[in-house]
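Support request, please re-run this one:
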Amino acid sequence: MLWDAFGMRWKVFKPEQPLPVRYARTRWIVRVVCVCALIQVSLAAKADAQIEVAFKSGGDLREIAQTYLGDADLWPEILKENGLRDFTDVQAGTVLSIPIDAVAAARSAIAASLEKIQQANEIGAQVFAFSEIDAAVTQHDEALIAQKKGNWSGALAYAVEAGELASEAFARAKRSRDQAVEARLSDRQGWVEGQRPEELGWDDRELNATLVEEEKIRTLSRSTAQITFRDSGRLRLNANSHAVIQQMRADPLKNREDAKVSLVEGDFYALLGGSPGRKALKVDVPDVNAQIDSGDFWVRQDDSGAKFTNYDDDKVEIDARGTSLSLGRNEGIVIRSGAAPAGKVDLLPAPGLLEPADDGLVFNSLADLSWSRVDDAAGYWLEVARDPNFNEMADSVTGLPDPRFSLQNLELGDYFWRVAALDQFGLPGARSLARKFVMRVDMAPPFLRLDRPLSERVYREASIEVEGESEPGAAVTVNGVAATVAQSGAFSLVLMLTPGANRIDVLAEDPAGNRTSLALEVAHLPDADALLTFNQAMPRQSARHFIANAAELTVSGATDANSYLRIYGSDGGLRAETASDGKGQFALLLPLRAEAEDFKVKIVSASGYESEDAFKVSQDLAAPEIILDSALPRLTSVEWLPVRGEVKNAARVLLNGRDIPLKNDRFDEVLTLTDGRNTVEMSARDDVGNVVVESWQVTLDQTPPVFVGHSIQGPEAGRVTIEVSAEDQNGLAKAAPFTLAAGGEEVSGYLKYNKLSRSYRSVVSLTSAGAVVLKSVELQDDAGNQTRVRIN
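Re-run finished. Output below.
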């Protein structure tokens, strides 16, 4: 236990305390000892530091204080030093002792500590060294209080302590202002390698890898790499390029980052993000001094020399071999090895994009792109990305001789593309405005319905009109002849018949090349033979092959009026019979005895003329099966919900009432959730009407917990009890990190959630006395929403 030299407080030191605490207190002891030594030296020299002045008749004690102590208001200190209670005790001839050194030392130390505090604050100590600068200000305030009380030794000690703490704050803030920062490999296409200073060889760099100062990055053929800095500035390293990140520095107080990149070989273009005061990217190219203010530029370095282009209103200043040039918007320059830079070059204009149209559809992994020619262009540079900002590159191809290119093996989704023309020097011109196209893997055949003629009707006329409807945009042919197709998908064609049976083949083909065909037979018979037609609503595999989802099938259709129909199984036995009505309509229930059966139909007309027909029936009793790749969450904070899986044996699948496409029996959909409970329902139906329905409940919660209040009980026996109340409609996390301050100690830990009290609680042991203040607590709910509460 140690009482400090200034009557401030008790300090208790325990050997079992953690090393950081013991170290901090040891440093404090040393500081106190040093300050005490200074005071002892000052006091030891007191006799030499005083002068004696005889008070003259009519003299002024304030004038003496101003003359010898530098402040007329310090006249009470002269009385105190001489043991006098009032200025009336001073008579002419009284010899007064003046404590000039004690006052001067204290006042000088107070002024010096204030100057150090101001210097520390100027470089950001309030942000980066708050505890040190706060302690320095407190000690300076104590020095002022001691000065007012005339306690000059105490004022000196407090001022010295304030100065030392301010110096520590200054040093810490200075270190924090100059930080080495990291960048991120935010996109990679093809093969990208890196080598850090401590690594002996090149290594593959994965997406989102962290990049540090002096790290080397290189790309191989048909590869690109995007480096993103913390201020959102990005650098796209193109194919066969090699660069070194020489420097990445951050000044958090000014919110500024500086980077320096050395281009060894190849090329890159840069888009610098942030405000103008934040971006600073220096490019190191051999024999060239480039001062770049532009936020959009391109650089190339190879054996032939260096090349620069600028696409921004801000300048690119070039200085090489005694020649200086300034590149404005859409200007470039070529600097040959060993030579001074030639004159500036106007960049070529941007091509116009032709096909596909903006927001156009392409299908089945292949996209044919084309653009307009640019006069004087020696080639073209095509970039394709998965996002409109070209942060996620899908392909980058340069040196294309013709204004067209075919992209293959594309995945499903949205793509954005742009083109720049290359001049004879290889300088890329202005980029075209980006266009979007959508890649769909469409393997589903188009919808096709035939309204006329009705299946298997007898036509006594030599011509009939074929009418129906297909998917909008699909082409329709009837027996190989193109039908007239309206914008809605309705089609029609007049078809000539020949006597007897006539086969009608209808084919619909969508833009993706998928096809759907229908076939039916009609008869052109001038005689009275009965003609049997079946109801179009009967599920079928072909014109005379029906599908049943039970052990019986309702057979309906039309034939001659008032005819008698008998249906025989493949064993020859009579299976069902009925009669047509006055309009020729009939219906009967046909029992089935096997998975697939052939039937014969005998039709006896009213006149007794007998004719035959036949059909086939197959049974399909299995309902489709819905299988999710992973179960849907009960509770989430993410408002988009992926729903992926497969559906077996389905002709149509609905997700929340919306048709969804299948590819190889798989689906991949994303739903947007609304706040609260969301119902996700999926149904699947096959061709014969077998249906399965699945339903799930997902709750979206994006509202962080609400901090209600807190209380602190104690300290008692060096322990305090903390309780924090919070509310959340969907449940709170089991623990909450917290930070509290007790005297000069800062304690962090976790509060545990109590379901009965619906609050967080914890008991914390303290090692130092003083007021206990809860500084912050971090709350999280079961959905993952977080909020950090700072308590003043």
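The helical segments are 19-44, 46-49, 61-69, 75-81, 100-122, 125-128, 130-148, 152-177. The chain has six domains: 2-177, 179-346, 353-440, 448-605, 625-700, 706-790.
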